[in-house]
Amino acid sequence: MESIILTILLFGLGILFIVKGGDWFADSAIWFASYTRLPKVLIGATIVSLATSIPEFTVSLIASLSGSPDTAVGNAVGSTIANMGLILAVAAIIHPIVIKTRGFRINTVLMLGAMALIWLLGRDRFLSARDGLILLVATIAYLGYQYWRAKSGEEQADVDVLVHTDRAHLPRNVALFLLGGILVVVGSRLVVTNGVTLAELLGVPEMLIALTLVSVGTSLPELVTAISTARKGHPDLSAGNIVGANILNLTWVLSGASLAAPLPILDQTLRLDLPVSFLFGLVLLVTFSVGRRRMGRGLAAAVLAAYALYVAKLVPLGTI
């Protein structure tokens, strides 16, 4: 019993390190981008989205290098499900979401395409280094498209660029950048190691822990952002960020992990996890493409209930 409690405490400490370290790392990365006078559209379309996906990328990469491929895959795929079924639903319950922009619908289609790509590449039950290269090309293409769209003025980047970029703030941001990176790496190591240990102590598959505790833990920054923006009456900003984060989770995160080591793809991933993620994505696409293009509290509650059913479905799978 004591070993389980210690493992849970270390796992929670790892999540805390990831959340706080990721926050510092992202803020300092944005500051450096502003300090070097990079275009605002480039900052919003690429640097911010990459920085906020650092927790998922680091956890999956370390899991792959540590010989825990199920955690690497479960974290990436599980984060997409948690982002839509839990985080976006909570934001819509706090404040209904209305999105009528063409760019959001295009990105949602791209997200569905990324899910289909993972399913196709994983049909042989592995993501190889070659598959990783394909996903890396997809990542670059997506970021390039976002930069082009933002620069062309089709859609403004939803980010407030830091204004205090004088040299006096340089030491502080260097320290935050380094400390944030260290915390994310150390926290990721704690999460992976203790997540696997927790699965062994509880007698459940590693994938179950990855799809639930790990994926939700690495998505906490998105959850905090979603609640904050929803309370301020701007849940649409969170919705756009979540779709972008999902695309990067499926392309950038899995490309890094599969280039580090081949990733086995379980039948459960192809038959349950990816289809559930795809279904949530279709709900978003239809909701914001027809009628009032609005996710109200009723629909959000239904999506949240569907996520709860999915997690409940994982539990008996984990006890087999």
Which tags fit this structure?
12 helices; mainly alpha; about 325 residues; two-stranded antiparallel sheet; single chain; two-stranded antiparallel ribbon
Explain how this protein is built.
By secondary structure, the protein is an all-alpha fold. Helices cover 80% and strands 2% of the residues. The strands form two sheets. Strands 1-4 form a two-stranded antiparallel ribbon. Strands 2-3 form a two-stranded antiparallel sheet. α3 packs antiparallel against α4 and α5 packs parallel to α10.
Provide a brief overview of the structure:
The protein is mainly alpha-helical and 320 residues long. It is 80% helix and 2% strand. The longest helix is centred in the first third of the chain and has 34 residues, at 2-35.
Overall mean confidence score, pLDDT: 85
* DSSP helix fraction: over 70%
Q: What is the overall silhouette?
A: globular
Largest sheet: 2 strands, antiparallel
- SS element count, helices: 12
* Helix and strand run: HHHHEHEHHHHHEHEH
Set out the fold topology:
Blueprint: H1 2-35, H2 40-52, H3 54-65, H4 69-94, E1 97-98, H5 102-121, E2 126-127, H6 129-151, H7 170-202, H8 206-218, H9 220-231, H10 235-260, E3 263-264, H11 267-287, E4 294-295, H12 297-318
Antiparallel strand pairs: 1-4, 2-3
